[in-house]
Amino acid sequence: xxxxxxxxxxxxxxxxxxxxxxxxxxxxxxxxxxxxxxxxxxxxxxxxxxxxxxxxxxxxxxxxxxxxxxxxxxxxxxxxxxxxxxxxxxxxxxxxxxxxxxxxxxxxxxxxx
Length: 113
Fold this sequence. Notes:
Blueprint: H1 2-43, H2 60-64, H3 71-79, H4 92-104
């Protein structure tokens, strides 16, 4: 009986973990679509780096690779509706998806640019 309970528990844990990876990939894909539709003109330009001066606009890769950047930090920034950006009236799900996409651009520590 103990083996059966252990097997069931492992199956449930595995079933719970598998969708999380798929969900993350879906969030990134949805976030990419949002970024291409709403943000590309300002934040997805070729070779765009960190903002230059107070009126500069950073590329999303630069945002993702800021020291200490986190998913939560991006979510908080987007929820605040920064005054220098248009208010796209993003839903909470869209904010999470966009943050997931931005963080997917983060390079692994020690990787070369």
